Input
Amino acid sequence: MLPMNVRVKRVETAAERDSSLALRRRVFVQEQGVPPELEPDELDEAADHVLALDEAGACVGTGRLLLQSPGVGRVGRMAVEARCRGAGVGARVLQELERVARARGLREIVLHAQVHAQAFYDKAGYAPAGEEFEEAGIAHVTMRKRL
Ligand SMILES: CC(C)(COP(=O)(O)OP(=O)(O)OC[C@H]1O[C@@H](n2cnc3c(N)ncnc32)[C@H](O)[C@@H]1OP(=O)(O)O)[C@@H](O)C(=O)NCCC(=O)NCCS
Output
């Protein structure tokens, strides 16, 4: 798939927040079968959220950054609209989350990667750390990257 032309930015308005949560619902609840009570969750309030907008202004990608521990951020809820995958949107969202993390003075990012998405994070410089485990009924592995 050709790279897609998207504008990636931090979520600043209620409308941007709603459209990123709606995308997460489509991807995690409807597509992947995550229980709806886990999506959204109580950590969203404190997180930095990023979204990718297509040329028509629709939200086609999103992700969030949380503070895990002093100096360490945690990326999660990475989701790209199914029809837009493989076009560089997820990579752009992840880069923006890393930019926000650096701006916050963080030195490392950890995340729980769904095992099927491990190669995506691998290409972005993340390395696996530890055994596979199950979260929301999906196999995951912890991955880390120094910023
Ligand atoms: C995982 C996800 C966010 C990736 O987003 P994406 O926009 O499709 O990824 P990109 O197009 O930016 O891919 C960047 C690179 O990773 C590779 N990649 C992406 N997904 C991959 C996968 N599942 N397996 C192998 N490689 C993958 C791409 O080929 C690309 O490689 P390149 O730089 O050599 O061209 C997206 O597939 C998604 O939303 N999946 C469903 C929800 C999900 O599983 N989220 C992850 C939770 S941990």
Summary: The chain has a mean pLDDT of 97. The beta strands are 7-10, 48-53, 59-69, 72-80, 108-114, 127-135, 138-146. The chain has one domain: 7-146. The first strand starts at residue 7 and ends at 10.
